[in-house]
Predict the 3D structure of the following.
Amino acid sequence: SQQGEEDPQALSIQEGENATMNCSYKTSINNLQWYRQNSGRGLVHLILIRSNEREKHSGRLRVTLDTSKKSSSLLITASRAADTASYFCATDAPPGAGSYQLTFGKGTKLSVIP
Amino acid sequence: EPEVTQTPSHQVTQMGQEVILRCVPISNHLYFYWYRQILGQKVEFLVSFYNNEISEKSEIFDDQFSVERPDGSNFTLKIRSTKLEDSAMYFCASSGTGGFFGNTIYFGEGSWLTVV
């Protein structure tokens, strides 16, 4: 099965530093999405990158996708204490697979220290 | 910004009882989903629903589970006879399209179910 697996599992940085989280998956995908989850709360959609895209930006977020390595990275620049959360990548199946479910990784727990 | 809303936010129920979790998806969306997250574990897919029928379900979604769209706005998940292992956060989600055309899926805040 295709799975997003993030690393590191936990990351602690100082406010103002950049945070990089990585995600690897096993099989072909259509899209890869990144979500944020504050403790005990819902999943907030951050960014979607399609399999034919290599890089995408949204504010302080930068996502890259390398389909040859089956990996993606999420970079948060100039981190803030409010960025403290768990970050998940989620993949879906390629076109024609007949499946639209997302497969989530275990997430990276980011702590930004003020 | 439109959002997916879920009720209740937290429910405690006795083992064997029936539970209904309710969701109002984003109004112009066509695809609806339920996912769950057991404490400390991954978010897992349960079921997707399109055009008033289940389009896909996982192994978790056994005969104890059912979904319904009783009217034009609500989407419900029913667990017929709850077990201890059903304790989890249940997320409703919706998307405007499925699959290829940039399937951004928006999630609600979740319903935290505790079975005792």
